[in-house]
Structure formats: C-alpha cells, structure tokens
Design goal:
two-stranded antiparallel ribbon, two-stranded parallel sheet, globular, about 0% helix, mainly beta
Length: about 80
C-alpha cells in the first residue's frame, strides 16, 4: 500500500512475480518495498496481496528478535 508518507518517492503498483526488498527510501524516514531492479521506486501492494519470503520472517522488536517460522503472508495495511 502506498500512502501520504511516500509523497516524495516515485511509486508503482506491484506486479505478479515481482522480486521485492524492504528498504528505507533515500532522503526520507519512510520504509517500504522496492524492486531489486529499481530500488528508488516504492512498490505499492494492494490489500490481500500474498507475499512469499525467501527466508522465515523475522520480527525485530526494541529488545528481542523472533522468528515467525512462516514464509507466506497476506498483506493488510494497519
């Protein structure tokens, strides 16, 4: 999903079979998904999109990290 926090970043909708990375966009405090081929363009995910991860998902907390032990997740905005 792309929202107001990306007003200073170019965006495009996600496509089937995109290979994405989680990134912090230059000159912003915003994090999001970008294509490995074009890391400066935010890729917008529609609610309900399923994301397959290369490795088990890891959640980074303030103190602890934990593995979710899953590689597939539906995307749903907060």
């Amino acid at each position: 999903m792309c929202d107001y926090s990306l007003h200073a970043v170019a965006t495009r909708p996600a496509e089937v079979a995109d290979i994405l990375v989680s990134t912090k966009f230059p000159s912003t405090i915003t994090r999001g998904f970008a294509s490995v081929d074009d890391p400066h363009v935010a890729v917008c995910l529609r609610p309900g999109t399923e994301i397959a991860f290369e490795d088990d998902v890891r959640v980074d907390g303030r103190v602890f990290r934990r593995n979710v032990r899953d590689r597939l997740a539906p995307f749903s905005p907060n």
